[in-house]
Design a protein that fits this description.
Strands 4-10-9-6-7 form a 5-stranded mixed β-sheet. A 3-stranded antiparallel β-sheet has the order 1-2-3, with no helix packed on it. The chain has a two-stranded antiparallel sheet with strand order 5-8. The protein has about 220 residues and is an alpha+beta fold. InterPro entries: Uroplakin-3. Keywords: Membrane, Transmembrane, Transmembrane helix. One of its GO terms (cellular component) is membrane.
Length: about 220
């Protein structure tokens, strides 16, 4: 059995310790070439004001994750992603409600087996889709709505009992949709609309005149 990860008080870095082995400094997580991305195909709700969709990675972690490992999604504001530091253990995972101050959080915790080649799973992941999140008091991850358009960057992180073991590269910046301001919506018709209305009125008047002339001709022809 493995003892939990330790932290060197002098440096703050993570340390691994086996039950019968002397302590050894944890190696850095393997950097995988996979880059998370928003699907290229047109999908309903692919990008909204508070959510976005990602392609679900498949066969990416098989060689770098054990049966007990979990895969997390790290979400960070794009200008804060470079400063993100992988947590040494699950107890140190940044939570959703810290996003306004920490500018990053981790969510969508799942068993590594859920991303295996043989795992039947949906093709996409929805980030920000849990509207019941907020004010959490437990250590459970939360996939709450994103509070601003961003942009955001994301990466996947494999966590084991000794801490992070593998990670993907960061995504390109993901910018959410923004709603139109009510002041930008004009209550008056555009010039093109006024011209169309005028033309329709002229055509209607001509039609009425032609109909009256035709009825007059028919009436005159009926008299002897």
């Amino acid at each position: 059995a493995l003892a939990p990860a330790l932290v060197d008080p002098s440096t703050g870095s993570g340390w691994c310790q086996a039950a019968r082995d002397p302590p050894a400094h944890c190696p850095p997580p393997a950097l995988l070439p996979y880059v998370p991305r928003v699907p290229a195909a047109a999908l309903p709700g692919k990008l909204t004001a508070s959510t976005f969709t990602l392609e679900r990675p498949c066969c990416v972690f098989d060689r770098h994750a054990g049966a007990a490992d979990t895969v997390w999604l790290v979400v960070a504001l794009a200008n804060a992603s470079a400063g993100f530091r992988n947590p040494p253990s699950r107890d140190n995972v940044p939570l959703y409600d810290r996003l306004p101050t920490a500018r990053s959080y981790m969510t969508l915790e799942a068993a590594a087996a859920a991303y295996a080649c043989s795992a039947p799973s949906p093709a996409f992941l929805r980030v920000g889709g849990d509207t019941g999140c907020g004010g959490q008091g437990s250590r459970d991850p939360c996939n709450g709505p994103l509070p601003s358009p961003g942009p955001y960057r994301v990466k996947f992180l494999v966590m084991g009992c000794r801490g992070p073991t593998a990670e993907t590269r960061w995504s390109e910046p993901i910018l959410l949709r923004t709603g139109s301001s009510p002041s930008a919506i004009s209550a008056l018709p555009e010039r093109g609309g006024s011209a169309a209305v005028t033309m329709a009125s002229v055509l209607a008047s001509l039609g009425a005149a032609l109909a009256a002339a035709l009825l007059g001709a028919l009436g005159y022809g009926g008299c002897v």
